[in-house]
Amino acid sequence: MTDMTEQPLTPTTPAGASDSRADDVATDGLVSPAAVSAPPFTQAADDERLSSTPSSAPLSEDAASTVSYTELGPLGVERDGLGIKGYLSMRDEGVTYHRMKRFYCRCVGVNFMRFASRDAASTMVTALFSAEVQKVEAWDGKGLWHTYRHSFKLSFTTGVVFNVDADSEEDKRQWIEYIEMALKGTEAAVEKWSAHASVSADIMELTPGGLAFAEKKCSPPKFKNDMMCCHPTCHVRFDSTGKRQHHCRNCGGSVCSDHSSRFAMLRHFQANHPVRLCMGCYRAQRFVQWLAMLLQRLSIAQGGVEGVKKPTLSKAEEEEVDTLLTMFGDEAFGISDVIQVLHLHRHKSDEAYAHAVNKLLELSASNLADFEFFLPQLFHMWLTVDWTNNNIKAALLFRVMCHGTQLHIRLATAIYWLTRAAIDDSCGWGFGQSELYVPDYLYRKMSMCKLLMINVEMQISHGDWSFEIDKDLPASTEQAAIIKCFPEQSPA
């Protein structure tokens, strides 16, 4: 995956991850997993977010069903840089006689995910259910007791079938339209991968969704039953402290309750519900899913279909762009001026922001000293940008970072250590703090920073895109195999 959004190997997504998050270094399509930023949150969404309580373990589906329709709010379907998201009513276990419950769902390419709440959907790895869509069909909406007016049927590669009801006819149309488009794009991508199968034997090893193996059947690991927690910084012994021994369902390691509080679905083990993971495996699984989501957007693009159409500029946005272009025509306009423009326009038009980034890249060739001076500020802008609502801007700034690594080895080294520090912070190792107390907003930077790190290391060493297990991503054998397949499937 060479270009880079939760996400880029040169940005693209993954984002998160999830949320484009983007895709780039060499290609704009990869750098920005989105074509438009997600619409702003509504008041109903804000109310839900304030009323929800964060939890590292997934909420039970029963808990999700207790939230009333009124509290959730009549939110319509949203299209962001990665896919489509919104509320759908469905049953817990496919086609059954149980009543339907209302879930917040996301579909990124052919990967469908169901969450306990809208707020939980910002991190795709927290999905209560995740599967690869095989086809979408019509359904008459006739249940045992009710008739559902905006209904359709989803069939998954696992054999599960869900009868689904949308909130409105327009929502139904958008869901079906996007899923059909994703299926066509994925089919075209698979045809291209098949043409290269003789050169890269592992290119067809994964399913089109990128989260499971096509042929290989993986069995969950055997529990190791060690007497000490497997977390590298934890020395709890299970025979003397009274701590309960848990086991990671991905690596089989023995782990204490403090370092096994996170849950995720493991599609490579055909798990149909979230399972307990140790910190290292959870971090690796988030990275796997983030990259897979980015690859899904690229698959749609390979099919010759635009995942998200470029929006028509409003009159105010056109005036904003014209004003910037006039400013850029001034010969005295320098890099410091562009930096100021980037700050002032961080919540404005993506089109204007793109022109500002292009001007910055143009000036960097002749003003290397100024570019180097502002590099830490540019890195901080990229690190703190809200990928959920500004994934195009995040992708553009990712492009700036990757461009900097190509200008001079000194800049590449500086970016490397800035990224290294950000990763250490997100893992809880930078300043000796525990990973348990890393705030969510910082913890979520792991995937995007790791992707940038891979790009930077490639630029410095001029090596290849092969993935090697390291301290940041102590991936299991299956996870490492999945990550190694992604560069093969991404466009050249």
From TrEMBL:
Gene Ontology molecular function: phosphatidylinositol-3-phosphate binding; ubiquitin binding; zinc ion binding
Signal peptide: none
Record keywords: Metal-binding, Zinc, Zinc-finger
One protein family per Pfam: FYVE
Bias kind Polar residues: ranges: 1-15, 51-65
GO cellular component terms, A-Z: ESCRT-0 complex
SUPFAM superfamilies given in the database record: FYVE/PHD zinc finger, PH domain-like
Region (Disordered): 1-65
The protein's name in its UniProt record: FYVE-type domain-containing protein
Species of origin: Phytophthora kernoviae 00238/432
